[in-house]
Amino acid sequence: MKIPQMIAAELRRLTSTRMSVLALVALLAVPILYGGLYLWANQDPYGNLSQVPVALVVEDSGAQINGEQRNLGDEAADQLLDSDTFEWHRVDADQAASGLERGDFDFTVTLPADFSDAVASLSSDSPRQAAIELRTNDANNYLASTIGSQAVARIQASVAQKVVDEAGLTLLDALHTIRVSLVDATTGATQLVDGLGSAKSGSAQLATGSAQLADGTAQLSDGAARLRDGAVELRDGAARVADGAQQVAGGVDRIDAAARQVGTIAGDAAAQLPQARADIAKALADAGLDQARIDEILSRLDPVGDRLQAANTRVQDTVQQINTLDDGARQVADGSASVASGASTAADGASALAEGASSAASGAAQLRDGASQLDSGIGQLSDGATKLRDGLASGVEQIPDSDDQTRQAQADTISDPVSVGSTSVTKAQNYGAGLAPFFAALAGWIGIYALFLIVKPVSKRAVTALRSPFRVTLAGWLTPAGLGAVQMVGLFTVLAVALQFSFANPWAALGILIFASATYAAIVLALNVWLGSVGQFLGLVLMVLQLVTAGGTFPWQTLPAPLAALHHVLPMGYVVDAMRQVMYGGDIGRVGPDLLVLGAWLVGGVLLAAIGVTRMTHHRTLRDLQPSLIG
Question: pTM to 2 decimals?
């Protein structure tokens, strides 16, 4: 019996009755239904998150932010409600809790009462983080927790971006104000430097003048000291002169008094001369002397009277002179007393002058020293002011002179400083297309496994007739391989037409699916030839192993070490890799090694099945005589 005849015989058996035809069609549809329905359901789940119900609870009471009353919770809520990220429902805390428990909401997001206040604390002495509370219920959906965490992270990033944007703008405006102030300060520092230059010149002159003043006041102090000593001597001498003049005045007073008495007596005597002459003449007349004798006697007495008158005149002149001398002596005494008093005052003044001159000399010396220190200090101050001016000018240069528009752009950049530029060497069309290589490869195995539920691994008649074991094996392999090819064509049609997944190399993709199905058929055939129903069960075990080791969802590097080792051995991982390259337009050079591995499995499976068939033609085992417990 030739190979086509054996294949035709098996196909006739599979389509001999209506039920068998239905069974065959149903099994042929298994990979199409599995792969098609699963990928349809997961075609674009992230694009349909707007249908996921989420409760939003806003308890924020607001706060003063940058001098303005703000409620960031309400602002964030308005943005979320206007977005299509999720099906947001703004409710209170009780409604959110009960809805999450009943499954009305997949998760809840709460903005607490101190949300805005916590954000405002960033500019205080006690900053703290603003909290966003996420509540999930894994009894509703486990992935909802992961999606909720991502949603909260986006809310956090959005609020942080807004806060940093506003804070950054405030900071930049403050820096601009600081720059303007620094410019003014630089101008003032320049003026200060110029003023200190003038002050330095003046302080040098002051130092020179104060040194000269110190020398002059020192000389003045010495002169004042000598003047004081002279004034003291003058005071003492004037005092002695005053005492002597007072004594002279007293003696002259006594002489004047005596002279006045003598003058009075002399005056009285002179005044009495005429009466005395008349009395003498009368007495002489009474004595009986004649007139002639009387005249003679009187003529002899007249010279005495004349001399007495002359003496009186001289006495009166002397008295007048003594009186004048007394007045002069008194004036001398008074003047001497005044001189003595003035000399005393002068001595006191000279002493005070000496003390003042000494103080002035000391002060002038201090002024000289202070002026010297001032000159040195102004020099240092001038150097410091120059450094200040240069530092301020450098600070002005380091702060950019920006306008309002530029500062707004800078604040936007500060709040979102990193722009992620995403480029892909290859890119899947959507989430479903990203899973398609894995689930197509898995559906191929499931389809072959299902076919072997009704397809006989080998023809018992051919084995009994001792036909060529290799031809029997090829016929046993080609039948499920052909049916598997039909499955893969149907699955590819669903992917490309119904789900409209794009394929960079569609014919290569279809060829890989058919080749993979043929490889699976060889493997399951060998298991069935050697182990029968147990082998069929092991085919299910192999499917489970490849389900977790193929790296169809998470990278295979995340697997535990034993499972990661199986990834490099089992065929499905290579099918997934080859499908990704031809579907997304990846490295075609990687497809060759993948196909070589699949070819090795295919050849190995067929050869191993052929060896088993050869054994069956020469030997009978207990399994041939007694059916397996599991079928």
Answer: 0.63
